[in-house]
Amino acid sequence: MDDRIKQVIQQAPQAVHTNGSLKLVIFDCDGVLVESEHIVAEIMGKEARQYGWNITDKQAREEFTGVQMVDIGKKIAKHAKRNLPDNWAEEAHKKVVEGMFGNVEKIPGVESILQTLHDLKIPYRVGSNSSQEEMKTKFEKTGLMKWFPKDRIHSAYEVRNSKPFPDLYLYAAEKEGVNPDECLVIEDSDTGLKAAYDAGMACMLLRDLNKAAPNYKGVIRVDSLQKATDIIKEIIQSQHNREH
């Protein structure tokens, strides 16, 4: 582990410290486990343009990544300065689910990190602003369903507030029966990062290191799941060495 990561860990919550105890890893879904954000951006970009918001697919990805469908609708209505149909979110959701078939892919290194956590006996869960139906489709199409029993997949539709509020991650920790400072979240979006930070959880941000990120203390920057896997191995080993 390089010195930069070691310094960041010292500022992070207890879960990743040598004298801490990592008891749960929580994954965001889109952009961390599967690559489907381009699908959502394309479909939502078309929706926005249909209602008068002249937005590119690139801008749509920036605007809508990690955002619940109902909140996307609110954004579109605000920019388009018109009300959307009452059933807009439901119909848009159907279009997104249909768009997943044949287009969603696994993030490189995803099965390696899941196998590593399994071997290390570290429990893991998923916490996403996507619906259960969307995640089921994504995991089935990528062959990842075998890794995720349904009771370990959590949608923001199950809690009061979606990300960027911390409700979803706190809910996942509660279901596991662990404290927030015993959890590590792996995220790729600013929205999810804020949710994890406000939940009091350690967080890895999966993003190109040259791209900007919020300036939260203790956020571990990684540019691949393989790098995340290597760091988790070292964290667990250091905690085991202390115990023995």
Low-confidence stretches: none
Mean pLDDT equals 92
Distance between the termini: 21 Å
Oligomer: single chain
The best one-word shape is: globular
Class computed from helices, strands and strand pairing: alpha/beta
CA-based gyration radius: 18 Å
Q: N-to-C SSE series? A: HEEHHHHEHEHEHEHEEH
Largest sheet descriptor: 6 strands, parallel
Keywords:
six-stranded parallel sheet, 10 helices, 12% strand, 244 residues, single chain, two-stranded antiparallel sheet, globular, alpha/beta
Structure characterization notes:
The protein is α/β, with parallel strands linked by helices and 244 residues long. The protein has a six-stranded parallel β-sheet with strand order 5-4-1-6-7-8. Strands 2-3 form a two-stranded antiparallel sheet. Helix 2 packs across helix 3, helix 2 runs antiparallel to helix 5 and helix 6 runs parallel beside helix 10. The two termini are 21 Å apart. The mean pLDDT is 92.
Give a nutshell description of this structure.
The chain has 244 residues and is an alpha/beta fold.
Write the layout of secondary structure elements.
Layout: H1 3-11, E1 24-27, E2 34-35, H2 37-50, H3 57-64, H4 69-80, H5 88-100, E3 105-106, H6 110-120, E4 124-128, H7 132-142, E5 153-155, H8 167-176, E6 183-187, H9 190-198, E7 202-206, E8 219-222, H10 225-243
Parallel strand pairs: 1-4, 1-6, 4-5, 6-7, 7-8
Antiparallel strand pairs: 2-3
Helix pairs in contact: 2-3, 2-5, 4-5, 5-7, 6-10
